[in-house]
Amino acid sequence: MTSPNGGPVLQVKDLTVEYETERGMLRAADKVSFELWPGQRFGLVGESGSGKTTTALALMRLTQLPGRIVDGKVMLDGVDLMSLSENRMREMRLAQISYVPQGAMNSLNPVVKVGNQIANGFKDHIDNMGRSEISERIVEVLRSVGLDPAVSRMYPHELSGGMKQRVAIAIAVSLGPKVIIADEPTSALDVVVQREVMLTLRRLQEEIGAAVLIVGHDMGLMAQFASHVGVMYAGRLVEVGQVMDIFDDPFHPYTRALIASLPSTNRRHRLTGIPGLPPALLELPTGCSFNPRCESVMDVCMSVDPTFDQIRGGRWASCHLYDEAGAAK
Amino acid sequence: MSAILEADRLTRIFTRGLFNKVENVAVNEISLQINDDAPSITVIAGESGSGKTTLASMLLGFMRPTSGVIRYRDREIYSLKGRDWREFRRNVQPIFQDPFEVFNPVYRVDRILTQPAQLYNIAESEEEARELVEEALRQVGLRPAETLGRFPHQLSGGQRQRITVARAFLLKPKVIVADEPVSMIDASLRATVLESLRELKTELGISIIYITHDLTTAYQVGDTIYVLYRGSVVEAGNVESVVQSPSHPYTQLLMGSIPVPDPRVPWGENLAPITSGDEFEVSVDGCAFAPRCPHAFDRCEIDPPHYRLEDDRAVKCFLHEDHPVTGLESLMRAEDRSFIA
């Protein structure tokens, strides 16, 4: 399935989100730009505070005060989301672009039966849908995530964590959106359940031809689930590419360090974290934000902020090592 | 070899319902031993519901077992009084799973560090206490200036968790029981925290009971591993052999489910089709894993004993019944633990 105009289904350009704090203006997402094509699974990785959740929420226009989207364009299949009225935007959410929030299993309403929570989406977005049709659709979406239809008559507390997560995914896919945004969808789940839930999400996404933006910090999960990876650091996207390229030959020193810090199950070795700490967003270093922790730091990195450029086909990075546009390396 | 902390056939049963009592065996006859003279990292691995947190609570003296005994330096912990009890409490320290629940929201985070420092008199002066606190914070990768004086809500989950790890550093106990200490910390900092746990063992001689669902980190830091499933140890032994060649079908499922950070390795390529455990009721008498087990056969209707494999591993599965039956407590007795060296 391709998008009607044959291009990317989601285009994000210079998306910038600022938070007003007591100590000054803080830029949580800084000129984030990327594209999502139909069928792609794009993994947005980074440490906490790197801006990945901020970016995901901004795409849905769910940024809450004191945060504000100050700049940028988000085109969903040709529609400029930033220019829509709040009512029109509400119609887009769930139907066109859906969101599985962090700890989604705790986002279910504890006093409403699962079936009714799924039904809300149909009632809000589809006019004149009869009661029997709604019931049929509920059974259908529950089955699609591998749950017994009897679950629709249960309350969230009667379900295990994995089952609640499946319900959250069922809601997110129930209207066949073009884009599904999932923020750390399995961070609270056990490894066995995590695999089951992620494989379910992948199957559904392939069936409806949606693109998925998955937010997380687990590079292992990204390697297994994503087709493309975007790495965020201190509010910026610092590298984007296909998952194979990123793991085979990471461009940005931060990506390299992230991959090197992963524990292996083949070989016991001394664990090496990334030295230092992510910078406080209010006191970013001058030049490249990563320079205090970078192994390949050069003089230019201390004063000049690198731009986010295409290094070669389908691969972007913001790093002075590649200043000659791909000449280095 | 003497044991500093020993669990002998610990069982904990929770009951619910007033008239028709339903029993849930959270921990089933688990024995393990932490030696005084050879610091070690013992991994307790399992999913949620495996009983690992219940086991931790009992080892820390927070919850009494339904049956079985916990000994601290060869004395039953519930026979300890006054000074002896306080010594046990100081020397067996917890690191909890949820960094959001251990802090009192109305006090600055300093309190969680300075209070135990005063209680156990670890410093001569306030000045020295402050230095020790700052050093402990730096050990776990926190900047004291950005941490002290803050309220819990001003810190992220990862920062809070590192403060609780720092608290354990500060007291320099004999044993730390760490329940999922890194599950809420970013991957890049996980390595730092785990490496500092390992340093606690090698440099300060502190033994660690590392409770986790993550076999990857277990493999990196652990010496011995106990794999739990629904309250029972299904496989125990040297971490290298258990991870490299898991013998119990459940351990195989756990290992196969790990998302390997290599996009060329298919996720769970050697696993049987997904059977989710959610829908299954555990048969009362049989093997608890049988409903999800791809190898289940009629023998599994009774509960298997532990079989002892060649490498001194214990596996609770009839697939290995050609091996001698072993009791977990005898396998784990100090003089017998040649495989730990």
Please give a structural write-up.
The complex is a heterodimer of chains A (329) and B (341). With 329 residues, chain A is an alpha/beta fold. Helix content of chain A is 30%, strand content 23%. Chain A has helices at residues 52-59, 86-92, 114-125, 131-144, 161-173, 191-208, 219-225, 243-248, 253-260, 299-303; strands spanning 10-21, 24-36, 41-45, 67-76, 79-80, 97-100, 179-183, 211-216, 228-233, 236-242, 309-312, 315-317. Chain A has an eight-stranded mixed beta sheet with strand order 6-7-8-3-9-10-12-11, sandwiched between helices. In chain A, strands 2-1-4-5 form a four-stranded antiparallel beta sheet. In chain A, helix 6 (191-208) links the parallel strand 7 and strand 8. In chain A, helix 3 (114-125) crosses helix 4. Chain A is globular. The model of chain A has no long low-confidence stretch (mean pLDDT 87). In chain B, strand 4 (67-72) and strand 5 (75-76) form a beta hairpin. Chain B is globular, with a radius of gyration of 21 Å. Chain B has eleven helices and 13 strands. Chain B has a nine-stranded mixed beta sheet, with helices on both faces. With 341 residues, chain B is of the alpha/beta class. In chain B, helix 3 (110-119) runs parallel beside helix 6 (157-171) and helix 4 packs across helix 6 (157-171). Chain B has helices at 52-59, 82-91, 110-119, 126-139, 144-147, 157-171, 187-204, 215-221, 239-244, 249-257, 328-331, and strands spanning 3-16, 22-35, 41-45, 67-72, 75-76, 92-95, 175-179, 207-212, 224-229, 232-238, 306-308, 314-315, 325-326. The chains are: A alpha/beta (329), B alpha/beta (341). The interface between A and B is large, with 46 and 47 residues.
